[in-house]
Amino acid sequence: MNNCDVVKDLLPLYHDKVVSEDSRAMIEEHLKNCPDCRELSARMQNGGAQVQLKFNVEIGALKIMKRKILRKNFLIACLSVVLTVLLIVLAGIFVADGRIVPSGAMLPTIEPGDRVCVLKLPYILGAAPKLQEMVVFTAPEELGGKEELLKRVIGLPGDTVEIKDGLVYVNGEALDEPYINELSHRDFPQVTVPESCYFMLGDNRNHSRDSIMWQDPFVPLSSIKGKVVLRYWPLAHWGIIR
What we know:
about 240 residues; alpha+beta; 8-stranded antiparallel beta sheet; 4-stranded antiparallel beta sheet
């Protein structure tokens, strides 16, 4: 094997810088005097640089792609959070939300501290409260007009309502009220419920701030926020409200 053959075999190691100092010196001396080996060495060097350049370009592209994917995933996560919060807010405004019952005005049906679900959507879509439904509404102006109350619908628009001898009469007939705590201790003279208004009473008939106590006994439809449909807390009392 001549010197050219030896140098050609060693050139890859030479360019990878893994040859000994003596071999490096011999190769470099040979390259000075051998055009063919010098040309081969140059091609190897250029090819290695191109490979390294391609490798660097590919690594850079992978890094850019990774940053884009991370940015996209972050934006998707942020958008998901925003949409979730928006849906919760919209559901609370237009569909349903929860209330904590602060008093015993609706005993025995609902106890103080119970949490109930209030369905808003039917009334928003134009449905009207029905007789004996339990609803949430804004308190009358004489009570400040800010507090929300939970009572039962006892009189619909156009109904006549009267309380006599402990019983509630609607349009002249005694109302069947299996949900009340006890009969009313107070009489209430016959009244006719105006258009788009409702007459409200609590189930705990003698311990409730309701229509028989207010100067204006009628609640306008516009003040009614929703229908009480479910008690969800405490779990031991979970169930549909009737």
